[in-house]
Write a structure and sequence with these properties.
This protein has 1 helix and 5 strands; from the N terminus they run ββββαβ. It has one helix spanning 52-58, and strands spanning 12-15, 21-28, 31-37, 45-50, 59-62. By secondary structure, the chain is mainly beta. It has one domain.
Length: 77
Amino acid sequence: MFDIADLTIDGQYLIQGERGEWHYSGTTGRKYNFWRWAEGQTKRRVSLALSKIQVQRKVWQQVQALNLGSLEAFKGE
């Protein structure tokens, strides 16, 4: 179960049953709002509003940036 206190506007999230990486943009009433860029279109957004229970069940991971420099194959040794 995802802890809603961990949601940040700067984070990107994976949502079960939805494609792509989603950005959290805040709440409207009792809904938690997420968005992502439409596939193949950089000027159109797709929005998704989830209830608190849906966020706890479906949002399962914040996407972490991968530092390639820390991987052995990219150290140039």
